[in-house]
């Protein structure tokens, strides 16, 4: 199969490319960074250097392919001027134009938990907006929508705090098991889905492990050798004020606070638990080793 991979050599696209090449697929990886070309080719894939906002470029690359893996690059949350939701809508609109013009019939799209609605999911509603725009594609374009849960890598943001204050400090605490996902497990699912014959529209959730906040802290504390590491909650308005002081995008901060409220209330996970997936292979104790590595470097 001729497969197009977006996402350059990111934490999902790199292992995905490796898996597809190992399968014997013809893989083209799109990157906006010309310096990534050799690294892409060293994996056994073709490199297509250009912008995901360029309809003509994408149409040319998409044409003749059997399937495409689509993802939207993350926004810069330090840019206080950007409209985060419009940022994602723009990528979706460009994708739709390029897919229509290239006549591709099979899409695997990386969305997220919360993508099923624009309510009760905080900033993740932008995934819902993208899903709705992609649904405008003709019915003969098969779309598998993947909804992974929160990435383990998000936890790495707590490393400086754990180092300086021996605590993970945020405005929520999960007393029930909260799902987390590894990019490696996500790549495995994409590699499976993209070569699978399919028609119509389908959704699949992805998760690697499920743990409470206390269980997460235990795993991290064991990995870093700090048994007194704690999970500490603060009022949402305190966290929001701190993020604004750090120069984060106000729209993003508002969305993050609402997202944490949805985690606390459990509403974020309602659809997930109605379509609960088989958990992947990378468990929280495996990720804790990565946390410890970064912790020890700082």
TrEMBL record:
One Pfam family per UniProt: NmrA
Domain NmrA-like: 2-248
Record's protein name: Uncharacterized protein YbjT (DUF2867 family)
């Amino acid at each position: 199969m001729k497969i197009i991979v977006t996402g350059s050599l990111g934490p999902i696209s790199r292992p995905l490319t490796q898996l597809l090449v190992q399968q014997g697929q013809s893989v083209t990886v799109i990157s906006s960074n010309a310096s990534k070309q050799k690294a892409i080719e060293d994996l056994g894939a073709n490199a297509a250097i250009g912008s995901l906002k360029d309809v003509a470029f994408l149409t040319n690359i998409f044409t003749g392919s059997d399937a495409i893996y689509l993802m939207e690059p993350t926004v810069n949350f330090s840019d206080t001027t950007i409209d985060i939701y419009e940022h994602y809508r723009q990528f979706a609109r460009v994708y739709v134009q390029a897919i229509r013009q290239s006549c591709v019939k099979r899409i695997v799209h990386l969305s997220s938990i919360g993508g099923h609605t624009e309510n009760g999911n905080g900033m993740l509603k932008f995934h819902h907006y993208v899903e709705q725009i992609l649904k405008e594609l003709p019915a003969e374009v098969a779309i598998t929508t993947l909804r992974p849960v929160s990435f383990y890598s998000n936890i790495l943001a707590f490393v400086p705090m754990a180092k300086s204050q021996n605590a993970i400090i945020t405005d929520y605490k999960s007393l029930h098991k909260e799902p987390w996902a590894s990019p490696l497990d996500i790549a495995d699912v994409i590699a499976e889905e993209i070569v699978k014959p399919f028609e119509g529209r389908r959704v699949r959730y992805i998760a690697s492990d499920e743990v409470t906040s206390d269980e997460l802290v235990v795993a991290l504390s064991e990995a870093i050798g700090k048994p007194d590491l704690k999970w500490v909650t603060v009022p949402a308005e305190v966290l929001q004020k701190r993020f604004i002081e750090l120069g984060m995008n106000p729209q993003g901060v508002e969305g993050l606070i609402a997202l944490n409220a949805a985690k606390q209330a459990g509403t974020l996970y309602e659809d997930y638990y109605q379509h609960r997936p088989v958990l992947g292979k990378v468990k929280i104790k495996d990720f804790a080793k990565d946390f410890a590595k970064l912790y020890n470097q700082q």
